[in-house]
Amino acid sequence: MKNFFRNELDINPGGGDTIDLYGSDDEEVDNVPSDRELTNASGEEQKTDEFAKCIANEALCFEIVFNDKSKKWSSKMKVPSELIRFVIGARGAMKNKLEKETGCRILFLMQIVEIFDVTNKGLYFVEIFSKSEKGVKRCKDRIELILMDARNKAPYTHFVSFSAAVSDIQNSFNEFTKQVINDEELPESCRCKELFQDPKKLHFTVVMLSLLDSSYRKAAGRLLETLVRTKIRNILNDKPLDVEVHGLEYMNDDPTNVNVLYAQGKSDLLQSVADEIAKGMKEGGLARQRDDRVKLHLTLMNTRYAVTI
């Protein structure tokens, strides 16, 4: 299968049913603009990195304040409900350790939030109190390290992608599907139509994300918009993307046990754009740190598509 498609930059939510560029499953992207202005990065590329650090975790943006009445320092952090157990620990062991070693008192308050008109598990607000400002800062830093480690182990929930659902590619993909299904020399298990991607959902995955609550989802959307405005447009320089799609490859090293079959994508410009987006998401703390470049691939077949529950 060999095709070219010419298209402007398109950050597409994707279909939520492809193997990702690093070999993990992915879900639908939710590009929701942030409802909180963490910083003003519009039009200023030099502020992008600072913006990314802040937007990646709102916990970093809560100030440490002094209460004249209680004579204590305090600060708050937002922790996704999925990660709160790492801060509390088994039978409160981690919480007790943090309090003892930093001289702070830690309180937890759960907030129920509405996401897409459905009640979510919500967020935990972690409030830290101490007679020492340094103690509060040290406690926040410790909790942030715990969260970073937990997030690196969390499952992927979203991804950023470029849509490849254009007529030339779709037509070639449909022809490829037809040839495989009608090839009687292939095993029956390889000719199941459910194995093939939906033509409307063909896409190039750019980077996988672990967005565990609404604030992270909004932060990812906001950061993506900032990256496009401050960096991606400069790379494109008003030039359209030319991408050559050809060749068949599989994800693992064992040709007798293949779960994912994909076509290769070749484009220096698209590669630069994809690498810049992945880099920005990693620096923003929303994607796992990897040094390798984005593997431009177009998933054609995936055994997971045929799995029924």
Task: Produce a short descriptive summary.
The protein has helices at 48-56, 84-88, 93-102, 133-153, 167-181, 214-236, 268-283, and strands at 3-7, 11-12, 65-67, 72-80, 105-111, 114-115, 118-119, 123-130, 158-163, 203-209, 241-250, 260-266, 297-302. It is built from seven helices and 13 strands.
Outline the structure in words.
- The chain has 309 residues and is of the alpha+beta class.
- The protein has helices spanning 48-56, 84-88, 93-102, 133-153, 167-181, 214-236, 268-283, and strands at 3-7, 11-12, 65-67, 72-80, 105-111, 114-115, 118-119, 123-130, 158-163, 203-209, 241-250, 260-266, 297-302.
- The strands form four sheets. A four-stranded antiparallel sheet has the order 1-11-12-13. Strands 3-4-8-5 form a four-stranded antiparallel sheet, covered by helices on one side.
- It is elongated and about 80 Å long.
- The longest helix is centred in the last third of the chain and has 23 residues, at 214-236.
- The chain is built from seven helices and 13 strands.
- It has two domains: 3-36 and 41-50 and 155-306, Cyclic phosphodiesterase (Cyclic Phosphodiesterase, Chain: A), CATH 3.90.1140; 59-153, K Homology domain, type 1 (Ribosomal Protein S8, Chain: A, domain 1).
- The model is unreliable at 1-60 and 112-120 (pLDDT under 50).
- The two termini are 32 Å apart.
